[in-house]
Automatic annotation (TrEMBL):
This is ABC transporter substrate-binding protein. Residues 82-435 form the Solute-binding protein family domain. Keywords: Signal. Gene3D superfamilies: Dipeptide-binding Protein, Domain 3, Periplasmic binding protein-like II. The lineage of its organism: Bacteria, Bacillati, Actinomycetota, Actinomycetes, Kitasatosporales. Residues 182-208 are annotated as: Disordered. It comes from Streptomyces hygroscopicus.
Length: 513
């Protein structure tokens, strides 16, 4: 029997068993209920694809959330690395790891082999810009036997299993990387490496990307050869609706079955039974441009930080669906619980006179423009002149990273890219960071992050990450505002939506109506 057909047949036999696997009382992240059929699901997502579904940028998370892609590992509810395409792994040396693959198949019908996995990871290392999960890391991958892949890092990297769970390190079949002319892009120059990698029909998840309509719609069908069992839903009809009110209206009118990220202002308009609130690792913060403009002066940054009252945001803008910002890491991360950070040695706040600034944010998360308006008022009361700039995220990111604005309000899931707090700190707050909205370059921060990165034991690594957090906060480059809870809208007949605090999964094998 063809391997994909064999897997499909096995999945059919497992289907009655799967219907009882997602019980909240056992600690899983699934919304529960009896299976009620296997029709198509209509899903409204908040962020449209910005990079033609590239697996290496922001769209990597979109592919992961829709059940298209997966990596060698995944994160469990406690933030630890657990098996996905790799069923186990061992550490051979300070820089070397061996991962043993499970029996699995790509959506194009080819087998997931060590050579294919090594090739996929090699392509990721050549991507430009580099995937966020590889910030500050170099690695090589090679087949090491019938089901084994050896991965070697340039320096010691204790977080490698966590890193490999990142959506941007999803494993795709060799077909995904072939240019139209039939050549392998990894062997070409920069232009070849920058060409779009095609995840349609080449991933390993329970759903395969069948058709897209620009940035507005996508059609997914069930992949019957999925190693994790046959998905209950036969496919997904996805709409990308950036406007939160429109997304909510689509749910209310019955146009969609699931609406991602319902705005808190719209939650009261829906039946309470349709709401699913999820504590997340996402922190909304104010990032101050430390390299140019008024906030290049630490005393001016201190004045801005002193002027802001985050508690008003949690109570008013988020209507209680958020916790007041304590630091960079929120209450969804149990290891970050305890006393809030208390940075010392900050400069005295400057007296503000006639200081004007541009404050930017995006409207894909509808609370953010409201947050920016409250901050505008609070900063004005402290003597700042504030001009607001609100755009859709894909039209804001490049300029924000380039330092075009004096300040940016952004919501960042601190565990999204790697699941490792040290990697997040390195990417967002060090001199070489790739997502450094505050443009921080501080020797004390770099030293603290490097010290945290040297810790192999997870508990010691977490303690060192909290110390590095304090070093970041001491610069006043970032002002934590709130730790978010995400609200999803789910029609009564739908079960099995994945309530993931790391926001990497949303629709899975158990999602059905």
């Amino acid at each position: 029997m063809h391997p994909v057909r064999r897997r499909w047949a096995a999945a059919l036999l497992l289907l009655p068993l799967l219907s009882g696997c997602f019980a909240a009382r056992d600690g899983s992240p699934y919304d529960t209920g009896a299976a009620v059929g296997g029709g198509r699901l209509r899903v409204a997502m908040a962020f449209p694809p910005a990079e033609r579904f590239s697996p290496y940028g922001a769209d990597a998370t979109l592919l992961s959330r829709l059940g298209v892609t997966e990596g060698l590992t995944r994160l469990d509810g406690n933030g630890g690395a657990v098996p996905a395409l790799a069923e186990s792994w061992t550490r051979e040396s300070a820089r070397g790891w061996v991962f043993t693959l499970r029996e699995a198949w790509f959506q194009d019908g080819t087998e997931v082999t060590p050579a294919a996995v090594a090739g996929a990871l090699t392509h990721a290392t050549h991507a430009d810009p580099a995937p966020a999960a590889l910030t500050g890391v170099t690695l090589t991958a090679e087949a090491a036997g019938k089901r084994r892949v050896r991965i070697t890092t340039g320096t010691t990297d204790s977080a490698l299993p966590l890193r490999l769970a990142g959506p941007s390190l999803a494993i795709l079949s060799p077909k995904a990387y072939r240019a139209k002319g039939g050549t392998d892009r990894a062997r070409g120059g920069a232009a070849d490496r920058e060409a779009a990698v095609d995840p349609a029909g080449t991933a390993t998840g329970p759903f395969t990307l069948a058709r897209t309509t620009g940035t507005t719609r996508a059609t997914l069908r069930r992949f019957d050869g999925y190693w994790g069992g046959l998905a209950h839903a036969s496919g997904l009809d996805v709409r990308f609706i950036a406007d939160g009110t429109a997304r909510t209206n689509a749910l209310r009118s019955g146009e969609v079955d699931i609406a991602e990220a319902v705005p808190v202002s719209q939650a009261a308009t829906l039946d309470a039974a349709t709401l699913r609130e999820v504590p997340t690792a996402r922190t909304t913060a104010l990032f101050l441009n430390t390299r140019s403009g008024p906030f290049a002066d630490p005393a001016v940054r201190a004045a801005a930080r002193r002027a802001i009252d985050p508690s008003a945001l949690a109570e008013d803008v988020y209507e209680g669906h958020a916790d007041t910002g304590r630091g960079l890491f929120g209450p969804a991360l149990t290891w970050a619980a305890g006393a809030p950070p208390r940075p010392s040695g900050r400069p005295a706040a400057a007296r503000i006179r006639h200081t004007t600034l541009t404050l930017a944010t995006y409207d894909n998360r509808p609370e953010l423009p409201e947050v920016a308006q409250v901050l505008q008022q609070q900063l004005r009361e402290a003597g700042f002149g504030v001009k607001l700039e609100v755009r859709e995220y894909s039209r804001l990111e490049a300029e924000a990273l380039a330092g075009t604005f004096d300040a940016v309000v952004a919501a960042r899931n601190t565990m999204l890219d790697t699941g490792d707090p040290v990697s997040y700190l390195a990417d967002d707050f060090t001199c070489d960071g790739g997502y450094n909205l505050a443009r921080v370059c501080d020797k004390a921060v770099d030293r603290a992050v490097a010290e945290a990165g040297s810790r192999a034991d997870s508990a010691a690594r977490h303690r060192a990450a909290l110390a590095a957090q304090t070093a970041v906060l001491r610069t006043d480059a970032v002002v934590p505002l709130v730790h978010q809870r995400i609200i999803h809208g789910v029609r009564r007949a739908v079960r099995g939506v994945v309530l993931d605090p790391y926001e990497r999964t949303f629709v899975g094998t158990g999602t059905r109506r």
